[in-house]
Design a protein that fits this description.
Elements: E1 3-16, E2 19-28, E3 39-44, E4 51-56, E5 66-72, H1 78-84, E6 91-98, E7 109-115, H2 119-128, E8 135-141, H3 150-157, E9 161-167, E10 184-186, H4 189-197, H5 202-205, E11 208-214, H6 216-228, E12 236-240
Parallel strand pairs: 7-8, 7-11, 8-9, 9-10, 11-12
Antiparallel strand pairs: 1-2, 1-6, 2-5, 3-4, 3-6
């Protein structure tokens, strides 16, 4: 059974032209316990009654008195209109946490193939769990102006996570500051992955676990891509929206 959480929006930060980071402090109960990768449910008011929307928790579970969400604002969307107009100090009710998208505890190296706001649950995973463990993050975005959380990713790269932000619509990396270019590549997530993992043996592939998150069509395409590469289904975990 889902728990109900009364919260207050204490900070709303614009990350790029249409993506925001929402920070909610808990009012009642005072704490939330969740597994990194899980989501909460928001009831959005509408003329026909409340409509449920699910949002992955984007913050570490080390902080139990608050949580954060990364939300893309879609013009004309019911939930987007509600969240875009939401001001700080607004009280909001959530239910949760729920969901099965979480890291498996084993010695396998983790590979994250994500797009857009699929970074949200992965941010929670990386900040909560992975410390000095080998992992690879391939994050697909359209252009450099869409990038956010770069300072955080720099810090995460220092504790064993290999970062590649894959820009699908840039012609070159000249738009990226030279000091950060090692974190970037051109193309879609799958092509960036191939550049780095093209010569793996079957045994090496089976020692990897893949975590996919993003839009439904993208996640399905990535699943098929991995299956063609002989990745076992038991090593593929995903969340799609």
């Amino acid at each position: 059974m889902l728990s109900t959480y009364n919260t207050i929006l204490t900070k709303k930060t614009q990350l790029n032209s249409n993506t925001y980071l929402y920070h909610f402090d808990l009012l009642e109960p005072k704490e939330i316990i969740f597994i990194p990768g899980q989501y909460v449910m928001l009831k959005v008011p509408s003329d026909k009654g409340p409509v449920s929307r699910l949002y992955s928790i984007a913050s570490s579970n080390n902080s139990k008195t608050s949580f954060e969400l990364i939300i893309e604002i879609v013009p004309g969307g019911l939930a987007s209109n509600y969240l875009f107009s939401m001001s700080e100090k607004t009280e909001v009710v959530f239910q949760g946490p729920a969901g099965m998208f979480s890291l498996r505890e084993n010695v396998k190296e983790k590979v994250f193939l994500i797009t857009g706001t699929g970074i949200a649950p992965v941010r929670s995973m990386l900040n909560s769990i992975i410390k000095n463990k080998k992992a690879y993050l391939f994050w697909g975005l359209k252009s450099f102006k869409d990038v956010y959380l770069l300072n955080e990713l720099r810090e995460i790269s220092m504790v064993g996570v290999n970062i590649k932000i894959c820009l699908s619509r840039e012609q070159n990396l000249e738009v990226v500051p030279s000091a950060d270019r090692s974190f970037f590549d051109l193309g879609h997530v799958d092509s960036c992955f191939i550049k780095q993992f093209n010569n793996l043996t079957v045994e090496q592939i089976n020692n990897l676990e893949f975590y996919l998150c993003g839009g439904r069509l993208v996640v399905e395409a990535l699943r098929q891509f991995l299956q063609v590469k002989n990745v076992l289904q038991e090593n593929i975990f995903f969340e799609k929206f």
